[in-house]
Amino acid sequence: MAGHSKWANIKHRKAAQDAKRGKVFTKIIREIVVAAKAGGPNPEDNPGLRAVIDKALAANMKRDTVDKAVARGAGTNDEDNYEAITYEGYGVGGVAVYVECLSDNRNRTVAEVRHAFTKRGGNLGTDGSVAYLFTRCGQISFEQGDEDQIMEIALEAGAEDVQANDDGSIDVSTAFEDFIAVKEAMSAAGLNPGYAEITMLPATTVPLDKDGAEKIMALVDMLEDLDDVQNVYTNADIPDEVLAELE
What we know:
Layout: H1 3-19, H2 21-39, H3 47-58, H4 63-74, E1 83-90, E2 96-103, H5 106-119, E3 123-124, E4 134-142, H6 147-157, E5 161-164, E6 170-175, H7 179-188, E7 195-202, E8 206-207, H8 210-224, E9 229-234, E10 236-237, H9 240-246
Helix pairs in contact: 2-3, 2-4, 6-7
């Protein structure tokens, strides 16, 4: 997203997720179970699990709940037989949409995702139709801070880029594999981000007016409300002034 609107978009999406905290917790628990099953229950040896646990704690999930989810993943419960599936498509205005799911029933999931795209004026595409537009990476964002200090610590820890935005926020981008190291270096220096997650950043963006923004946000909200959907990424760029009209 463009620098001037990146933080505003993040704040909106996080606020929407917080409003559905119960469902968010359910999805994070599923993600913990899958990560623990795939790479083992020890976060020190399983970076994927470590990142999800950090996300869970940042969302104010109780440590006991996290530990129980890890234990579930370390067990052999066939009921936790989820597979990771991605879907790709386009929303109105040619906005690319990338959807990550964890599902125990592929047929159910694709039917629900296709229905959301169709109902909100989009089209579900084929594998690879939009994935090339996104790069998996780490993003650590501060609502405000000392740009020089953040840049020095971030780059020394292995970050790829530091960008100061017009609203005073600062975004740190990292390679996927360096995310945890950079995040921990920030925390060790007393710098606590407002947002820190593995994400999919688009190489190009599509600016939207109010009508287009409303339609894309409706699609994203409908997809995020599906039980099997974990994350939804788009290359929509919603300017601050448009976002302010919608809130």
